[in-house]
Amino acid sequence: MKGYAMTRSGLILATVITGLTAGTAVAEAGAMAMLKGQDGQDAGHVTITQGPNGTLFHAELTGLAPGWHSFHVHEVGSCEDGFAAAGDHYAPDGNGHGLMADGGAHAGDLPNIHVAADGTAMAEFYSSRLTVADGAAPLMDEDGSAIVIHENADSYGADAGAGGRVACGVITQTK
Ligand SMILES: [Cu+2]
User: Fold this and answer.
1) How many angstroms separate the alpha carbon of residue 17 from the centre of ligand 1?
2) What is the Å distance from ligand 1's center to 134 Cα?
3) Spacing, Cα 162 to ligand 1 middle (Å)
4) Residues sharing a CB contact under 8 Å with residue 22, sequence separation 6 or more, in sequence order
5) Ligand 1 centroid to 12 CA: how many Å?
6) How far is ligand 1, taken at its centre, from the CA of residue 14, in Å?
7) Distance (Å) of CA 109 to CA 8, 21, 75, 105, 127
């Protein structure tokens, strides 16, 4: 009877450990990007904080045209060549574009931001797909990644319609 009780305890302990491991798979980490416009002027910054089950983006932006704009993670950590060097949207899983599209979305597809009349925007997004350094879609992969803000709002469909690149910042790991 006593032996049976010990076996039961052993099984319960094993279950608890498995649960904890699943909830803490991604290590704590952080990153940031300082953004510039095409004229080289400061366009604000984005801080990125890794949590146990997702990644929080906090954006404080300036010097942008009022209205809605696309906000994406692009696949290369470079803003050279008029921001073209940032490449396409970050999509390590091979999904198509568009938060609301069949076959979407790119891991780097994020919600639009709204810029006020004074050219500033404050926004926060949470992504359960992107990670700072570990996992299936790390921002700090071999060639890094960049935040790009576009001229137009993202349609969230398969064709983004985002237009030109108006601000860019290379993502760098801070912890
Ligand atoms: Cu983009």
Assistant:
1) 41
2) 23
3) 7
4) none
5) 48
6) 45
7) 47, 28, 11, 6, 10
CA distances from 15 to 12, 21, 61, 66 (A): 5, 10, 46, 53
Gap between the Cα atoms of 143 and 166, Å rounded: 22
Residues 6+ apart with CB under 8 A from 85: 76, 78, 79
CA–centroid distance, 33 to ligand 1, in Å, is: 15
Contact between 155 and 22 (Cβ < 8 Å): no
Per run of 10 residues, the mean pLDDT along the chain (length 175 residues) is 42 37 68 98 98 95 98 98 98 95 96 98 97 94 98 97 98 96
Distance in Å, CA 152 to ligand 1 centroid: 10
Prediction pTM value: 0.85
Q: Strand runs (DSSP E) across 38-164, as ranges?
A: 42-50, 55-61, 67-69, 71-74, 113-115, 121-127, 146-150
DSSP state of 83: T
